[in-house]
Amino acid sequence: MSSKTVRLTMSQALVRHLAALRIELADGSVQPYVGGVFSIFGHGNVAGLGEALWAEREALPTYRAHNEQGMAHAAIAYAKAQHRQRIMAVTSSIGPGATNMVTAAALAHVNRLPLLLLPGDVFATRAPDPVLQQIEDFHHGDLSANDCFRPVTRYFDRLMRPEQLLTALPRAIQVMTDPALCGPVCLALPQDVQAMAFDCPDDFLQPALLRLRRPMADARELQRAVEQLRAARRPLIIAGGGVLYSQAWEALRQFAERHGIPVVETQAGKSSLPWDHGLNLGAIGVSGAPSANELACTADLVLAVGTRLQDFTTGSHALFSQAALLSLNVQALDAAKWNGQALVADAREGLLQLDAALRDWQAVPAWTAHAQRLAEIWRRRVTELTLAEPQRQLPYDAEVIGAVRDSTPDSPAHDVVVCAAGTLPAELHKLWRAGAPASYHVEYGYSCMGYEIAGGLGVKMALPEREVIVMVGDGSYLMMNSEIATSVMLGHKLIIVVLDNRGYGCIHRLQRASGGPRFNNMLDDCVPEGGTLPQVDFAAHAASLGAEACHVADLAELREALVRARAASHTQVIVIDTTAERTTPDGGCWWEVAIPEVSTRVEVREAQILYRAQKAQQRP
After folding, report:
1. CA nearest 216: which of 114, 326, 328, 336?
2. How far apart are CA 189 and CA 10, in angstroms?
């Protein structure tokens, strides 16, 4: 180990380390690990970290954003589009800039995605306390706003001396590159410590090449898993996000084909198999296809690969409660959920190990053939739903999805669709035809409104050669839209399709299904006496942010606008009015939403009776 040192500030050492980091990707190529740094400067980071970023701007580009939560969403989407192999960092000042990123940190935590948070912090010396934007706690003198990050990050550290960077930063990177621990990390940087100099070892500025681990299965766990599979007659595979993070799609395809096992997909796992593969039964769960959910109800074994088994996937643990559960997951906590048989391993390596051990074993042929028939029936039904033309009424999401999906003369696999919250994720989960891995990018672990446009920017930065199509409802658009201006500023073209149903249509329908009245969701129901119903011109608003925008009258005009949008080189926003009253009737399953035990409303009391009956079907 070299004993040479160089005199640097903590910020300079941090930035130079990040700029020098390289990672060997799954295809064998070597790339910079950090794709860049999103920054909104303030008094807590502009002088220290800002100066260091300027000096390394050629090796580590800095991108200005318009909203701290938005820039963190973009960084998360970048990492997801890169299958967790590369990251972006984000930095803010010490107060609202930092707390604006807490929601994004939670999103990354839930979705098991890497994000490097570098918020400024108050002075370590405390000489000028309290400083502008400082949170003062009357009981804990060492707290700052950045302590909000502790429960929503996988690793948190506050650097009180510049030398602490030498251990803190490698630990943070270790967490982000660990397949089981992967998630957001936060290094809180007091603004005086950012500017402090120390003798930085040369070795720190020349970090070793990063390689992602692929843990193999334990021999005893593997043997039990093989025995469990061999005893099954009607097995079903649930493909989760871990299949894509592990880039295990080819191993999954070979495993399913060799052993005749049908595959269903979670939101995070959609695109693990091409939509038209004979054994792909489509989406599972609350937003699932009838083909997938029917098999889930009759399977005798569920092999869950790389999924954390959230309630939308499991129907609140009532959908496949009759089946034995075998979970292949790199994270032991996820693998052991709901008393399932755990197989802790990387998704790709675990599938290859299972495949070799099972040899020529296959599911019952009649089960495989039945699954293939259901898959074909559902594919035909998707065509019917997405090509329908509404008669004398507004279109609904499925019809818009069909127009968007079929608007390319090239392979739809070249497109990446991005979405997050509301009704659209449910409809896309069922109806979007994902032809290639990572062509479906829907954030549904945290279901975070406002992720869509910022997430689309991150995907475009990760995959600039792909057409990135953001589908977003009016509610999410109003919640966060400022990164339209960032996409224009950076020259990263997006196609944004805004579906305006004039309210929070998804929760409105849930409210009504739970026995509630129309209340506080649709704009028509929210105007008090003396108020005015808002008439938002989304196209004019998007144009004011620098996009080329239009409002279309119907599906025919939407198709024409999409042709123009694909030919354009500038961010495009297309707005279409839709209805909140219609959704795809096919598929779905029960989802536990607690209904009040006491209510003056008859509708609520009736919903409560049904709720108790459905809860009896849950896995104990």
Report:
1. 328
2. 9
Q: Name residue 8's beta-bridge partners.
A: 198
Q: List Cα–Cα distances, 210 to 2, 85, 179, 203, in angstroms.
A: 20, 10, 13, 15
- Give whole-number Cα distances, 343 to 295, 325, 337, 567, in Å: 23, 11, 11, 48
User: Of 47, 50, 95, which is closest to residue 68 (Cα–Cα)?
Assistant: 95
Structural domain count of the chain? 3
User: Are 363 and 410 part of one and the same domain?
Assistant: no
What token pair was written down for 158? Answer: 């506050």
Identify the CA nearest to 247 among candidates 437, 412, 76.
Answer: 437
In the prediction, which pLDDT does 344 show? 98
Q: In CATH, what number is assigned to the domain containing residue 567? A: 3.40.50.970
Decide if pLDDT at 612 tops 90.
yes
User: Is residue 496 helix, strand or coil?
Assistant: strand
Six-digit token pair at 111? 């979705």
d(CA 325, CA 342): 9
Task: Look at residue 412 and tell me whether its pLDDT is greater than 70.
Answer: no
First to last CA, the chain: 56
Q: Is 615 helix (H, G, I), strand (E, B) or coil?
A: helix
For residue 192, is pLDDT > 70?
yes
Decide if 51 contacts 412 (C-beta within 8 A).
no
Same domain, 419 and 365: no
Q: How many residues does the chain have?
A: 620
Residues 179 and 48 in one domain: yes
Q: Which residues contact 124 (CB under 8 A, 6 or more apart)?
A: 160, 161, 190, 192, 193
For 132, residues 6+ apart whose C-beta sits below 8 A from its C-beta are 43, 95
Q: Which of 211, 236, 268 is the last residue of a domain?
A: 211
Annotate 351-420 with DSSP letters as a single string: HHHHHHHHTT----HHHHHHHHHHHHHHHHHHHHHHH---SSS---HHHHHHHHHTT-SS-GGGEEEEE-
Give per-residue pLDDT as tens, 244-286: 999 999 999 999 999 999 999 999 999 999 999 999 999 999 9
| pLDDT for res 408 | 83
79 with 60, same domain? Answer: yes
- The residue-averaged pLDDT of 168-181 equals 98
pTM across the whole model: 0.97
Query: Whole domain around residue 61: which residue ranges?
Result: 5-211
* 324 and 348 within one domain: yes
614 within a domain of the structure (yes/no): no
Q: Is residue 478 left, alpha or beta, with left meaning phi > 0 and alpha meaning psi from -120 to 50? A: alpha
CA distances from 9 to 6, 164, 195 (A): 10, 12, 5
Residue 395: cis peptide before it, omega within 30 degrees of 0: no
When the pLDDT of each residue in the chain is averaged and rounded to a whole number, the result is 96
The full 3-state SS of 239-278, as one line of letters, equals ECHHHHHCCCHHHHHHHHHHHCCCEEECCCCCCCCCCCCC
Strands (E) in 125-167, as ranges, are: 155-158
Average pLDDT over residues 325-337: 97
Distance CA 286, CA 319 (A): 9
Whichever domain contains 224, its CATH number is 3.40.50.1220
DSSP classification of residue 84: T
Q: Are residues 433 and 472 in the same domain?
A: yes
Element (H, E) at 594: none
| Residue 617, pLDDT above cutoff 90 | no
pLDDT in tens, 417-472: 999 999 999 999 999 999 999 999 999 999 999 999 999 999 999 999 999 999 99
